[in-house]
Amino acid sequence: MTNYQYILIDRDERVGIVTLNRPKELNALNFHLVSELADALEAFDNDEEIRCIVITGAGDRAFAAGADIKEMSGKSPIDMMRGGFESWNRIRRIQTPMIAAVGGYALGGGCELAMHCDMIIASENARFGQPEIKLGVIPGAGGTQRLARTFGKYRTMEMVLTGANFTAQEMADHALVNRVVPKGEHLTEAIKLAKVVAAQPPVAVRLAKDAVNSAFETTLEQGLANERKNFFLLFATEDQSEGMKAFLEKREADFKGR
User: Fold this and answer.
1) Hey, CA dihedral for 38, 107, 20, 214, is it positive or negative?
2) pTM to 2 decimal places
3) Would you give the distance in Å from CA 69 to the centre of its chain?
4) What is the tens place of the pLDDT at every residue in 24-52?
């Protein structure tokens, strides 16, 4: 198993777990950490035994409190272009469902990383925000776009233009967080949810994720066409045959991922 400097990886049955591991820096996202994260997620994505991934942060103070400002201060536009933002594109391309388990601060890049995931479980002490405006910049890893598509224009404008933080419950009220759990229980609950996902037929899960994401990235007509294509494709899988046969025989299906 690969040794990483800034992240920890673990497994719980068919669930892969990645922990951002810079607790003294509130798990601030430097370029090296994000690159390691992309490497680990791709490794899990290519592992047939892993059917869902959970991302969390070490310690109880932060999921990730933003980018590493010390690293970025003094950089030129060219430096930033060369600084590893491709790693965010690699994370976005992960096909295995990902769940963010958020406790404490998820600010700036931390909020953006949570939104790269497919579901978010947040501890009641979680705080979300995009404070980049206070540093003279704006979100650069998808914050303005993903927030606007889920939080709505006006709340997004408030968060991005003022740098204000929002509670986990406020985010849940606007459908950006799946559920809020008691402090310290976010990882346990995220793994529990991940195991439910991991029990489903994996090819269908990946194509379902692709179909839902297309609703945010294409027109309605294109999204409907993609959904129909994925639906038809699944009739070529053994899991579809097994799932429908098990239903008719009133037994539990045994999905193989084929």
Assistant:
1) negative
2) 0.93
3) 22
4) 999 999 989 999 999 999 999 999 999 99
Q: Name, in order, each residue with C-beta under 8 angstroms of 42's C-beta and a sequence gap of 6 or more.
A: 90, 94
Residues forming beta bridges with residue 15, ordered by sequence position: 12, 52
Alpha helix ranges (H) inside the chain: 31-45, 69-72, 77-81, 86-92, 109-116, 143-150, 153-162, 168-173, 186-198, 202-217, 220-233, 238-248
Residues with active-site annotation: 67, 109, 112, 132
Give the domains, in start order, of the chain with CATH numbers.
7-198 (3.90.226.10), 202-248 (1.10.12.10)
Closest by CA to 91, choosing from 131, 34, 138, is 34
CA-only gyration radius of the chain, Å: 19
Give the β-pairing of 98-102 and 52-57: parallel
Give CA–CA dist 34/36, Å, rounded.
5
Q: Is the pLDDT of residue 74 over 70?
A: no
Question: Among 126, 114, 103, 94, which residue's Cα sits nearest to residue 205?
Answer: 94
For residues 185-200, average pLDDT: 97
Nearest-CA neighbor of 100 among 42, 161, 37, 49? 37
Residue 101, sorted as left (phi over 0), alpha (psi -120 to 50) or beta, turns out to be beta
Token look-up 């193989």 returns 256
Residue 82's pLDDT band (cuts 50, 70, 90) = low
